[in-house]
Design a protein that fits this description.
Length: 426
């Protein structure tokens, strides 16, 4: 009963001012294989030239991945630590496996299988140099709308998927994490899925589970150790010439926090000649003209905007608001040619529906906004140029609803700056 109450509180819209169109039904993805069959297979980048393969089995089985460059021929086998499982009230998860494989060659297709048997999967490693293409969508959930978004993402090639928080919308109903894992497997087993947490990942229950993120951290292990972070809730990675910061909107971010200290060290270690682009993902947007979730990202913006500005981050992606909105380059609420462009892309298709109401008149820093489900594509062509496009789900990938060319701040003689500390003079 208490659980139900908590669930309703979590699920309730936070603002009464907007109404959303009808949500579409949840999709159910039952497990069809045996107890030892691998399910919920997904991959993530795990440090230079390495990939982490994650999956779940209903019973204890070997944490081993066999892989190679030819279908059916596995020239290499890698083992991981013993699988783990977690409890959440009366739920006990399956056995969760994480195995790091590599070194792998760039732009190469590998065939693999998990646990010493089962079906064959394949993935392609990202390129080591430009061009590189990211697909981006947040607030996925697991509805018919989600399925449409995933079909659009998978309908056109890309290298890495970026998810700025809110994955399964399990909201404490743990079996929904499993069905989400099965729903995304056809995509997440083929391309690395790099995720950061949203509010729906928290799953704190007072006294019993005060820390939260139990399911998320167990299932969606990201390369935090590989990027010298102490927490799975924030980390970074490099792909081709892009450095990507995956920040935590629901863990501490103030100047005395571990996340803040990690971010300073991470930014100071970025070599712009190797990674001329820096992108960041958060969950609650710092800039938002939608009636939904207004102001929720403000404390994090106040804590961290200054350092991301000085570090010349090119674009900040957020989710949380179930709509699409793109801002011009901004800093401290004003247009600023040396600030990051902000994009809200919480349009994955979860059960809550769309956030329909934007404030009027439209502030001049907001360049495009629309409550439709869809996904974005960030194609980084070279050191100086990237192309961002947003695609609605009701159209083909070739139809672009919004697009913009971006020039990297590291290539701008006016803005170019090497970050050393928050006290940098600009
Ligand atoms: C980078 O890509 C842009 C867009 O295709 C192109 O105009 C520009 O010439 C390229 N720059 C270099 C150095 O290749
Ligand atoms: C897609 O949705 C938008 C917004 O609702 C609408 O204007 C457009 O006509 C739709 N396009 C198609 C092909 O249905
Ligand atoms: Fe959210």
């Amino acid at each position: 009963m208490l659980l139900l109450f908590f669930f309703l509180v979590l699920a309730a819209p936070t603002s009464p001012e907007y109404t959303r169109p009808h949500p579409r039904p949840l999709i159910s993805r039952p497990h069809k294989g045996s107890e030892s069959a691998p399910q919920q297979v997904h991959i993530s980048l795990a440090g230079k030239d390495y990939m982490r393969v994650s999956w779940i089995t209903e019973e204890k089985s070997q944490s081993i991945v066999e892989y190679g460059k030819m279908p059916g021929k596995y020239s290499v086998a890698a083992s991981g630590k013993e699988s783990t499982s977690y409890h959440y009230f009366f739920y006990t998860s399956g056995e969760i496996h994480h195995v790091k494989i590599g070194p792998l060659e760039p732009s190469t297709t590998y065939y693999y299988r998990c646990g010493g048997g089962g079906p064959e999967f394949s993935f392609r490693t990202p390129p080591s140099a430009f061009p590189v293409e990211f697909a981006v969508a947040g607030d996925l959930g697991q509805t018919e709308w989600t399925e449409s978004t995933l079909a659009h993402v998978g309908g056109k090639d890309y290298d890495v998927f970026l998810l700025p928080g809110d994955l399964s919308y399990a909201d404490m109903q743990q079996p929904l994490w499993d069905s989400f894992g099965r729903l995304v497997e056809p995509y997440a087993s083929m391309r690395p899925w790099m995720v950061t947490q949203g509010n729906h990942e928290i799953e704190i229950f007072p006294i019993i589970y005060p820390q939260g993120f139990k399911a998320y951290n167990a299932r969606w292990l990201m390369p935090y150790q590989e990027s010298n972070s102490k927490s799975n809730l924030y980390y970074s990675f490099d792909v081709a010439g892009a450095h990507v910061l995956m920040l935590g909107s629901y863990t501490e971010f103030d100047a005395d926090s571990d996340q803040y200290a990690w971010l300073l060290a991470d930014l100071a270690s970025v070599d712009r000649s190797k990674t001329p682009w820096i992108f960041a993902l958060i969950h609650a947007p710092w800039y938002n003209t939608n009636a939904a979730h207004k102001g929720e990202g403000e404390s994090m913006r106040i804590a961290m905007e200054n350092i991301l500005y000085k570090a010349r981050v090119d674009v900040i992606f957020a989710g949380h608001v179930h709509a699409y909105e793109r801002f011009t380059r901004v800093y401290d609420n004003k247009a600023d040619q040396c600030g990051p462009a902000h994009v809200t892309i919480g349009d994955g298709g979860n059960r809550e529906g769309l956030a329909m109401t934007f404030e009027n008149p439209n502030p001049s820093i907001s360049m495009y906004r629309e409550p439709s489900f869809g996904h974005g594509r960030l194609r980084v062509l070279n050191n100086t140029h990237a192309h961002w496009s947003w695609h609605r789900n009701n159209e083909t990938n070739s139809v672009t609803a919004d697009e913009i060319w971006l020039e990297s701040l590291s290539s701008s003689s006016r803005c170019n700056h090497v970050f050393t500390s928050p006290n940098d003079e600009l």
